[in-house]
Amino acid sequence: MNTLSPVQNPANQAGAYNAPQARRVEQYAGQTGATPEISVVIPVFNEEDNVELLYSKLVSALTELGRSWEAILVDDGSKDKSFKKLEAIASGDSRIKVVRFVKNFGQTAALAAGIDHASGDVIIPMDADLQNDPADIKRLLAKLDEGFDVVSGWRKERKDELFLRLIPSWIANKIISVISGVRLHDYGCSLKAYRKEVIKDVRLYGEMHRFVPIYATWLGAAVAEIPVDHHARQFGQSKYGISRTFKVVLDLMTVKFMSTYLTKPIYVFGTAGLWSMVMAMAAFVWMVVLKLCYHTSFIETPLPVLVAVLFVMGMQLIFMGLQSEILMRTYHESQGKRIYRVKTLLNVQDQNQ
To answer: Integer distance in angstroms from the first to the last C-alpha of the chain?
Structure first.
């Protein structure tokens, strides 16, 4: 079965991130050193019932690889005993690094913190709820070793609710694929594998973590997608809802704007302005027709005013949102500010020192 997107054959990629085709698993076997080869990044939020079993499965899967590794678990302001259990695990295993936030900043911020503190050549994000299977890491790495720069998981047999999760996800994935031009079945799957040089310099905001394969493709990276296992949640409550679908669509609008119009915003604003003028002219012509042919006074119908007000209001809201995105990114990147704040570090060197 062909698991690749039609445009994602590494033999046809000539971008900046292409790697040698013959990078094999045996190359890493038996290697040890201060710098791990694999960094697994896991956001944790109120997962006290899952972290110990997650640690057990993670160690089992990663030990089998024969490569050096580390796991960065980011406690995203948990209110339960998640951090206490992470603290106990980290005290007995130096490969487990823990980053604790002062409060909940969201999944994207947690992933950004994990990536910032990762030192491996390959970075693998995944969820802490055990719906992702750590055993699939081996398959992601095998595909990465074929010469790809990004390998995305596809939850082909997804164990989620049909109306609240599956249908909204299917719609969102279709919209993202059409707008971005990058054909993936499952953008929402957290389980992915990235070469360090692809993701280290990517700044993440909002729900942008799911769009990293799009950024990578636009920069010339070779992207593949493979089916991965997906398990039903056994402990805790899901942090996802149908509202996230709408947030994803809004973030996608921002991604498209930032990639296409950031250096030439007059194209989008000018085009919108021209269409606005065309619509205004059409409304004016129609009012003249009503006046001359039907003897209808301009003030007898509220339709022109209503259309104008709704149109201008919608345009203003959209453009204000896009402008706010630019201002927010300028604020963070020009001053080197992060979108999170760390409270505690375990087995991790402070990146600000």
So the answer is: 49
